[in-house]
Each structure stands twice: as structure tokens, then as C-alpha cells.
Design a protein that fits this description.
Blueprint: H1 16-24, H2 26-34, H3 43-63, H4 71-82, H5 89-111, E1 119-126, E2 137-144, E3 149-154, H6 163-176, E4 180-185, E5 190-194, H7 197-220, H8 224-229, H9 242-260
Parallel strand pairs: 3-4
Antiparallel strand pairs: 1-2, 2-3, 4-5
Helix pairs in contact: 1-2, 1-7, 3-4, 3-5, 4-5, 6-7
Length: 261
């Protein structure tokens, strides 16, 4: 019997989102990374993606001495491509937030004289064997400049970075060998948080431990049915909307029936 028919482990790669999902809710991780069910898309997600894209488009046009007046429309279009939910009041509110936050990102980067983008949404694949892993590690970085990589966070309240946000950039800093700084912005304010050397080492070790735990889990399970069987269903958290929750309950119930036959 072929193992992991719904998940080709020959092409499997570790990434921060997967590790974080595994740590937060293993049921959600199985749905997303083994059974390939997409997570619900919320307007708040569109806010971050669209604000970042808007900032990139603005800086790119400025470097080419082009007009930036149409950026608001571009952000609105991009938001619509990313968020397919009904266009409610919350939807339009997040579009407005994305437009305002994109402008804050640009102002913040200009103040630091970071306007010449070296790379954007760069994909890096690092060999897992270097760190005692079976599978490689993949990551995407936001804005790359000459001496620093900037990761952007679009929020509605300006707060210090969470441990998870620092852990993510610690992983990227360790693997890329570059200095990482987190730029957080709301529609009205922004702040920079540098990922310090101690944070890098600690965060990287935490990520590495999670990657190894995932590999151990995959080794224990001979197929997807095993993975479901040994994982209690937990549908709490943002990863489950009504449809996803219903689908998960069906999958876990059907799996239990099969294993009892």
C-alpha cells in the first residue's frame, strides 16, 4: 500500500507556517498539510498582503519616477484577488486599512532610507540535512535591501511583536545569514523591531525542534488514516469556519468508521 497518498513526502518541505500550525492545532495542520484543505480566507489576511504589495508597488514606481496616484486602486484590485468572501462592511473597512497601512510602510522605509529594493517575496530553500532534518526548509522574505531584510506586519493596533513573529524572523535570519527587522504598521502609526542575536539563536532552535517533531509524527504514521486516528479533533481557533469545522467532523467520523471495520 502506498503511504501518504494525499501528501507526497518526497516533495514535502518544512516552513514556518506549517510548524506554527502544527504547534497551535494539529487537527488544522492535518487538514491543511496532509489532506490539502484550504484554510478560510478572512479580510484581515487580505489587509496584510495588500498593504505589503501596495508598498512594494509604490516604491517601485517611485524608483522609476512614475506616478503613484493609482496605487489605491491597485491595492483594492489586489485585495479582491486575495479575499473572495462577500463584500461586507468589514471587507471594505479592511481595504481602507490596507491602503492606509501601505502608505505607513512607505513612510517608515523612507525614514530609514530604505527605498532601493534588492528583492521582494524572495524564495529560499535550505537543505534540511545541514540541521539533521529529512526534509528541506522553505521560506519567503518580504523586502530585501542591501544590509537588511524587512518583514511587514499590518495591524489595527500598534503593539510589540509577538514571540511567534520574532521566532519566524529568527528562522529566516539564521537561514539567510541576514539581519532581519520587523516593521509593524497600523493605518496611523508604525514601529520597527530588530531581531537580536539572542532571539535568532533561541527562535531558530525552537523552530528546529518543531520541524523534528513533525518528522517524528510522520514517521509514526504509516498513512493519513493513522495521522487522523491518533489526533483528537480540535476545531477551535481561526483556522476553522463553519464549513471547515463541518468538513473536519465528517473526515474524523468517517476515519473512525473505517478503522473500526
Amino acid at each position: 500500500t502506498k503511504k501518504w497518498s494525499n501528501m507526497d513526502l518526497e516533495r514535502y518541505t518544512h516552513n514556518y507556517s506549517s510548524a506554527n500550525s502544527f504547534m497551535d492545532n494539529k487537527s488544522a495542520w492535518i487538514l491543511r498539510y496532509i489532506l490539502k484543505h484550504s484554510s478560510p480566507t478572512y479580510p484581515a489576511f487580505g489587509r496584510g498582503l495588500s498593504a505589503e504589495f501596495g508598498a512594494y508597488a509604490t516604491l517601485k514606481r517611485m524608483s522609476q519616477f512614475k506616478d503613484t496616484k493609482s496605487i489605491d486602486k491597485l491595492i483594492t484590485w489586489y485585495f479582491g484577488k486575495r479575499v473572495t468572501l462577500p463584500k461586507t462592511e468589514k471587507y471594505y473597512q479592511e481595504v481602507d486599512n490596507a491602503i492606509a497601512i501601505a502608505k505607513q510602510f512607505v513612510t517608515a522605509l523612507q525614514e530609514k532610507q530604505l527605498t532601493r529594493i534588492k528583492h521582494y517575496q524572495r524564495k529560499l530553500v535550505v537543505e534540511g540535512k545541514k540541521y539533521g532534518l529529512k526534509y528541506d526548509i522553505i521560506m519567503y522574505t518580504d523586502f530585501g535591501f542591501d544590509n537588511v531584510t524587512i518583514d511587514t506586519k499590518a495591524k489595527t493596533k500598534l503593539m510589540p511583536c509577538s514571540k511567534g513573529e520574532i521566532r519566524q524572523q529568527a528562522l529566516y535570519s539564521k537561514l539567510s545569514g541576514e539581519k532581519c527587522v520587523i516593521l509593524t504598521a497600523t493605518p496611523k502609526k508604525f514601529r520597527f523591531d530588530e531581531v537580536l542575536p539572542n532571539d535568532v539563536e533561541q527562535g531558530f532552535e525552537e523552530c528546529l525542534s518543531l520541524f523534528k517533531t513533525i518528522e517524528n509524527f510522520l514517521d509514526v504514521c504509516k498513512d493519513k488514516h493513522d495521522a487522523i486516528k491518533i489526533t483528537p479533533l480540535n476545531t477551535d481557533g481561526w483556522m476553522f469556519d463553519d464549513y471547515t469545522r463541518k468538513k473536519a467532523k465528517e473526515i474524523w467520523s468517517n476515519n473512525e468508521t473505517k478503522t473500526n471495520e
